[in-house]
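User: Modeling request: complex.
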Amino acid sequence: MRFLRRFLERLGNFASRRRADQRLREEMEDHLALQTEENLRAGMPRAEARRQALLKFGAVQTIRESHHGEQSLPFAESLLQDLRYAFRQLANSPGFASIAILTVALGIGATTAIYSVVDATLLHPLPYPHPDQLVRIQDDLPGAGARDVGLSVQEWWDLQNSGIFQYLSIQGGGSVNLTGASQPARIYFKPVSPNYFAVLGAKPQFGRLFDPQDRTPGFTLEVVISDGLWKRAFGADPNILGRSLRLDNDTYRVIGVMPPGFRDQGRTSEERNTELWAAVGFAGDPLPPPQRNVRLRLEATARLAPGLTIAAAQSRLDALVASLQKQYPADYPLQSAWTVRLVPLSESVVGNVRQPLVLLLGAVALVLLIGCVNVANLQLARASARGREMAVRQALGAARSRLVRQLLTESLLLSMLGGIAGIALLFCLKGTLLSIVPDSLPRLNDISISWGVLLFALGVSVLAGTIFGLAPAFHASLADPCQMLRQEGRGSKGSAAQTRTRSALVVSEFALSLVLMIAAGLLLRSFWNLYKERLGFDPSNVITVQTWLPVPNDPKTDIYGTAAQESTLLREILRRGKSLPGVEEVAVGDLAALPLGHGHNDLNPFPLIREGHETQGKEPPIVDASVVSPEYFHLLGMTLLRGRLFSDSDVDTTPSVAVINEAMARTYWPNEDPMGKHFKLRPANPTWTTVVGIVANARSESLEQANVPQIYLNAYQRTAKDLAIFLRGRLDPATIPEQVREQVQSVDRELPVFGARMLPDVVSGALSQRRFAMDAVLLFALTALLLAGLGIYGTISFVVGERTREIGVRIALGAQRKSILGMVMRKGLTLAIAGALVGFVAALIVSHLMAGLLYNISPSDPLTFLGLTLVLTAVALAACYIPARRAMRVNPIVALRYE
Amino acid sequence: MGEKSDVRQGTLALMVLKTLDVLGPQHGYGIARRIEQISGDLLEVNQGTLYPLLLKLEHEGSISSERGASENNRKARFYRLTAAGRRQLRAETRGWEQTAAIMARFFEVKAEDLP
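Assistant: Request completed. Predicted assembly structure:
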């Protein structure tokens, strides 16, 4: 306390010190005058009177200083002094100051921008209390080659009662037709077990959430809605609680509204933007009665019991799994090797964006580092110009530590100004920058310049200032004032040590930029490889629109329950679609048939049971199947290799037929002809489906994978609820969705029509995340190249400037101008090559770390490595050429006289 | 600054307060003269150290000051005791008297007086 009071007092004095000192001086002067007068009166001569007065009084200056030292903050004072001085220094060289501040501003601005994304995405992926307790439960059947197969209801109950978890919830996800609000709408909803919100630890804005102890087997017919849906579809109705709405023709009651900031967890942005939650026990209608070996293919999320680490929970879980396997040997065949894994929820949410983001953060940090090196170089150049000033100050008694502090203060001031400018820049460009970020990024909406981000920017600024302030400060601390002052008469010449440091800085700059350039080059080539890949389908002029047939909980009320019922609707949609202006072809399919446009949840994975391929107790392989109408293949320009496509004569009364792709044929009917082979996708189904045709592979699943096995089933033989309508022709994307909506709703007024997309956009959208990472790294690499070029230019210019006299002498003695040019260029080339060597090795390490982001290119691709090394060397030579020419043109007479 | 000078300053501060108490408002020179007179040669004190002390006392609120004219019509700063200063003086005087009394008793005690 005492210390604090004293400090505050001193702080107060620090602010008012000028006045106090002024008064002290006046008073002392008064006193001396009075004393002198008295001495005079006592008969002393004037000079003696004053001297005696002074003697009696004591040392005026010492008293003032000790008073000052005691009552004020000497550190803060010298800091203030240094700052004032640093400001003056910067103001005196506005060119240097603006370049340095701009460099730092760009570096810090870019770093902070990327960090704000990382902060929201990687560091705080889960906006829930105690996020470290949240896990996703995944179970695999490695023996059957199946991952993430989902829990059965019995397994869920067993795990829930194990005491490992506080709550364990099961949730599905999908979209649903919402009616009973202003417009029929398709919204994303999650059927969840009643304890779902208890797992997340979420609270409603008003109303209540589901009772976590609820044991209703089927749907409880209660829903919770998001704040967004409440405002959009219900006009923020204050009496929303208890109001009923219809989802796929079933009636539910609203019991609660989530707060505006609530975001659901999930892998896709759709899941995270869930707008409606319905509670379901997963053990009754409309779901089959629970059986241990019927897996729900749903996600399981849990909150660990307090104090339990994931590793400890996992080992208890392993023991539980082993005992379950012993207890029910029939349900868990040993070959399939059922295992259950706990994955931190944050990891499962962040998933595949971690690597690109880490890469970006690394890249931007490198740019900042290169910027720092450049500023350090500039500072060094200035330091040698200011060598005389430093030497004089040292000769006058300034302590070295004081000079070092002064230089560091200047650097920190620079970096702080740069940081402030960078943040200001960021605030101005915030909107533009956010629009570049791909939508697929988790927690995109939460990216902001928060206090944490600002703190980060501050830290980075201090760090940057220290980094680029160290070299000049270090040299100042080594400088010998005697030598400096002696040299001064013969023109300034930086010490050899200083030139060495500058060279080392340039070498490191080159190495860093080579790393960035190679990273960017590899990403660029991956992107290009992917871009020029044959898609296997033609997206041009195709627009897709989605609709969804309702799935009531009671199958008896489903008006589209059979293929025959549904095909009437499909034929009507196709007929009406063809009549729209500009439309040349129309087809329908399910969401899985939508190329590249479907998420994980839209796939229809089925066990593939082939006739004649008995699996002998093993789980059958899992394959994806899509449902399409006969026009689908021609509309998308897919090539038939063998057999036939669907025809109009294939209907629900004729034998079930399928078209497969080449990859399917190779994987599941190797060394035999798949044509005419029989298979089924449901073990209980009594009839077999026949393969009638093989089409070429298309990259409809993902651009990266060419040979994903695919089965296409006939839409007139098999029902599908998630429909996509494909239209090809010279279409107007502005009017088509509305026209399609009118046509579809004139068939069935309750069907939602939504999600119109142009297929070319979908294809380029699939590249967006990759393109974002590539664009950003490329931009950083070019910046780095520019900075490195400037760095080597500055250093070589400096060397030439220093050696003007020497060059003059050489020319006067008869040196060829060409050999002077060669001498300077050699110096630059040596630096560039040294940098390239170091960078080459570093780039090899980095490129192997980012191998997961590459496509069809080796991380040590020789062409990229050598080509970019050459580019960098060429830039270095070009940057050296300008000062080298200046050196060549040195006029010996001028050079010698100038000295 | 070391502990020693604080103690000495404390003493000096008490002298300043007492002087102002006895003589009423005074300028710095007057206070210095008075202290010199009373303590005579016994106290070796640099007059200069008085002024930082005056500033400090004023800052702490024990004294206040204002500019006025001195005897021979020079402008000077006059210091006066404030109410707080008077309280402080009383408290410190008592403290000193106690200390002095205790010390005096110790010095009076001779070996034969001890039981």
